[in-house]
ATP-dependent 6-phosphofructokinase (Hymenobacter perfusus), 323 residues
Amino acid sequence: MKRIAVFTSGGDAPGMNACIRAVVRTAVYHGIEVYGIMRGYSGMIKGEFVKLDSASVSNTIQKGGTILKSARSQKFMTKEGRQQAFDQLVNHGIDGLVAIGGNGTFTGATLFEQEFGIPTVGAPGTIDNDLYGTDYTIGYDTAVNTALEAIDKIRDTADSHDRCFFVEVMGRDSGYIAIPCAIGGGAEIVMIPETQMSTDAVIDSLKSSWQRSKTSFLVVVAEGEEEGNAHQVAQRVKAAIPELDTRVTIIGHIQRGGAPSAADRMLASQIGIAAVEGLMNGMRNVMAGIVDRKLVYTPFSDTIHKKKLINQSFMRMVEILSV
Ligand code: F6P
């Protein structure tokens, strides 16, 4: 392997820069040339390639966002788009790719490999932590801490005014961000897509807390919750318990920004090294991840199709700790 390229795709996540840095420095360490592709698959199609060296990634490990920028490309989902991307890789003499992103990124990489045989090793970069094949994804720890900081502040005002706050956190179709926010934030209730907690059950639970003389409440709602978003759930609760003073906060994109935590910098660095060394060892169509503290490479087909299950005992923890 003589020349590789690295890119970030999908939603940005804190720690992506630490991962890019690790990829670049590992390549340099092994005498491999490395290019950065700007704006993910979209930049690959347009030929937005930049040569990187060790100095290009100085002073980036602590920065949020991604220096390579990110995009979600519709064109790459077409055969014509992938052909253009392949032509650009050939023009630049690239013989391996490191793709930092989530399942959308790996789905694109799988198609690309099937059609053109370009080997790709993936790095799990998403705040959602919804990827099978790694206990944690790059950006997750930082996002949870950011959300928790906001929740702590919301609790102050909830407590001062005897209010019930419905706080919506990100996570796409998973409740991985919501669970530690609820446990760490001392929430009464958590609603996630992986469990079927009806709004009626939420109402019953709040009524019984109310009767136990609790005066302020926190309900963490994962954005993918099937009962509806935080506004819809709050509306139904208010209709059932009019005496409850309800408010809704959607934490939103601040969960994606900011300096990566120590855990995310560490994970991103480990994965970046593993991705390049995986390519050097002939791996393709796999994602590097850490499971039970060990480095593992999981086929993209598994990361895409297998569901990473949420430990149901966490729901019980929320119930016990909010008694
Ligand atoms: O995948 C990361 C994520 O932040 C999800 O939690 C969220 O559903 C989505 O991206 C938001 O995407 P966008 O920034 O395109 O609105």
Summary: The pocket of 6-O-phosphono-beta-D-fructofuranose is lined by residues 11, 126-128, 170-172, 223, 256 (CB under 6 Å). The domain at 141-256 is CATH 3.40.50.460 (Rossmann fold). The first strand starts at residue 3 and ends at 8.
